[in-house]
Specification:
about 130 residues, alpha+beta, 4-stranded antiparallel β-sheet, two-stranded antiparallel sheet, 2 helices, 6 strands, about 20% helix
């Protein structure tokens, strides 16, 4: 075997081994919006075109979660889309970005100190 053959083999293996996993909703922490208030929790698998549901035991619709829990579930916010709520308001805005996808989440403060609930979602994809 020559060096070109070995290099090609390593590149092919690396391309397969380093591929990003396929994106999926089931089993992941998601924001759900439908007829009920926005919900946050771990999603069950989608079925027959019906509404998405949360795994039993996940935070329920309108749940008030600590700010750290959002970071644990969804990761850090985008560096290039910072946005603060209006001064003196009970609103916190977070942007989550990955590749061509950006999700804007508007959080409202709950009566319990340090807790937030999702009030609004916006999703955008970049042009290709």
């Amino acid at each position: 075997m020559n060096i070109k053959t070995i290099a090609l083999g390593v590149l092919c293996f690396g391309a397969v081994a380093c591929q990003a996993p396929t994106a999926r909703l089931s089993g992941r922490w998601v924001y759900l919006s439908g007829n009920a208030p926005v919900a946050v929790g771990q999603a069950e698998g989608p079925a027959a075109g019906g509404p998405m549901r949360l795994v039993p035991g996940s935070p329920a619709a309108g749940a008030c979660l600590a700010a750290e829990e959002y970071v644990q579930m969804f990761g850090p916010v985008c560096a290039h889309e910072p946005e603060a709520g209006p001064p003196g308001s009970d609103v916190d805005v977070r942007w989550y970005c990955h590749g061509h996808l950006a999700v804007r989440v508007r959080l409202e403060r709950c009566p319990q100190a340090g807790r937030l609930r999702v009030a609004e979602l916006a999703v955008a994809t970049s042009e290709r």
